[in-house]
Amino acid sequence: MKKLFPPAFACFTLLSLPIAGCPAQTVSLPPQAPVPSGTVTITVEPGARQTFRGFGASLGNWGGEYQSLSPANRALLSQSLWRDLRFNTLRLWFNTDKYAPTRGARDLAEFRRCYVDSGLIADAQKNGVTTLLLAPDAVPPYMAEKRTDNSGSAQTGMALKESETDNYAVLVADFIDQLKKQTGITITVTGVQNEPNNLERFTPSQIVRVTRRLRSELDRRGLQSVKIISPEAGNVDTIFYETVDALRADPIAWRGIVGIASHSYNNSTTPDIAERIAGTGKEYWQTEASDNGPEEPGDALRAATLASRFLNDMNHRVTHWIHFIGFDVADPRDNATRIFAFTRTPFQLIRYQKQAYYQQLSRTFDVGSVFRRSTSDLEGDMTYTYGKKPRVTVAAARNPDGTWGIGISNFTSPTFEDAEDPKNFEKHNSGYSARTFTVIVRIPEIATRETVAFTLHRSNSAVDNAPAGSAVMKNGVVTIPSVRPLDLITLRSKK
Q1: CA angle (90, 385, 12) in 5-degree steps
Q2: Nearest-angstrom CA–CA distance, 475 and 471
Q3: Mapping DSSP to helix (H, G, I), strand (E, B) and coil, where does residue 117 land?
Q4: What is the rounded CA–CA span in Å between residue 48 and residue 373?
Q5: Helix (H) or strand (E) run with residue 313 in it
Q6: Torsions phi, psi of 215, nearest 5?
Q7: For site-directed labelling of 28, which of 108, 170, 267, 400 has its Cα 20 to 30 A away?
Q8: What is the pLDDT tens value at each position of the chain, 495 positions in all?
Q9: What are the residue ranges of helices labelled H in 221-299?
């Protein structure tokens, strides 16, 4: 029987986090707080799975705020995001309706102002960005039609007309070609449409047709180096499965893409999608993750949900992991979408707790690390999807230098309740109440080594990627005695 999940929208995650418009909560546990304890055993199964290709983020700069800053402040922003967090992928928003507002029109002005003339792309590349990912969004009005969802409500100006499928693919190819000719910038990878399964703006069959035609149009223009990912679904749900199945069933479309893509919000990656991608030779891009609403520095709850989603996705064959907004002007109503925010007069850089968690993860799992499948004796595959979220999520990989990295996220909190209530969406999709865990990690693959020494780091509302001592794995087993609510603890073996 098919499961129908609520749709996810860009910038919006359906979690039991502070609701938009409500005060943000920074969670910290007083030392005397009575917190139940438990033990969980994680088994890291032998056998290489996917190779991790790195973190990334998107930027907008719609108001031109970036170029209004001094060179020193632009450098600080770029270094903080790209170099300090070791992010290597910049996702660029391409508003198709602004580029081609009328049939035959082609206007690069908005994109150039936001990304090229501002120096934003150049600054990112100076600080370690190697991949430019294009995110086509919206549909020109003359290509769109009304389409109703299952409830009968209509969303206007979003759904692609059947008669415009090929024309839309040509439009995207034209943009990539024109951008290279006018600016010398070559897009590394392009999507097809941002969150096409939101009210089925693009049906699965349309995604297949657009993908086929886009590959053909890029090749015809000599842009064979530009890779395609498809479909960038907002949810890992029934529609996403159907779209991936449709792509796989079409040899030309499947051959034309480098990988599949989805977003990591309330319904992140699952064993079902991991099975679909296994053995295909395709990459799996997670191209957008964040929260929505207010956020203040030190909010470990919002940081812990992102760490849990990342570790979940690594257990389900994701190769690239991209946050929604790297930095933007501070907005008290929506700072949860950002890793960093800034004010202009006077300039101030605001660092949210998630930046420490990302820094910690990017120093545990290098680009080129190869993940294994991890399972839990408490929650099996530790799948972060519709319903209650895993208490403890763990992933492990072998780095290119031979060291092992392990990430442990405790997504329990005093703001959550253990009780489930399917009629209460927030409660039903929350984590569990606060609990401290002893986490035992078994890696049979290195059980023949008598001892392996690991260094530990910890992040929570009180500490940022702080050294947390060391641990010794004996015959493939290591025990971490106190993983507290909303902790991210990482281990990396010594060379």
Answers
A1: 50
A2: 13
A3: coil
A4: 8
A5: helix 300-314
A6: -60, -40
A7: 267
A8: 222 223 233 333 333 333 223 333 333 444 445 789 999 999 999 999 999 999 999 999 999 999 999 999 999 999 999 999 999 999 999 999 999 999 999 999 999 999 999 999 999 999 999 999 999 999 999 999 887 665 555 555 579 999 999 999 999 999 999 999 999 999 999 999 999 986 558 999 999 999 999 999 999 999 999 999 999 999 999 999 999 999 999 999 999 999 999 999 999 999 999 999 999 999 999 999 999 999 999 999 999 999 999 999 999 999 999 999 999 999 999 999 999 999 999 999 999 999 999 999 999 999 999 999 999 999 999 999 999 999 999 999 999 999 999 999 999 999 999 988 888 888 899 999 999 999 999 999 999 999 999 999 999 999 999 999 999 999 999 999 999 999 999 999 998
A9: 238-249, 251-255, 271-277
The two tokens of residue 68 are: 């209004």
| Residue 292: closest CA among 253, 327, 338 | 338
Letter string b/e over residues 75-86, b meaning 16 or more CB atoms within 10 A of that residue's CB:
ebbbebbbebbb
Q: Return the C-alpha torsion angle 185, 191, 192, 197, nearest 10.
A: -150
Q: Taking the alpha carbons of 200, 205, 209, 212 in that order, is the dihedral positive or negative?
A: positive
| DSSP reduced 3-state for 403 | coil
CB 308 within 8 A of CB 272: no
Radius of gyration of the chain (CA): 22
CA angle 244/239/7 to nearest 5° reads 135
d(CA 301, CA 234): 22
The 10 Å CB-count burial string (b at 16+, else e) for 389-416 is bbbbbbbbbbbeeebbbbbbbbbbbbbb
Question: Residue 150, SS3?
Answer: coil
pTM: 0.92
Q: Show the tokens assigned to 300.
A: 């470990």
Pairing of β 436-442 and β 37-44: parallel
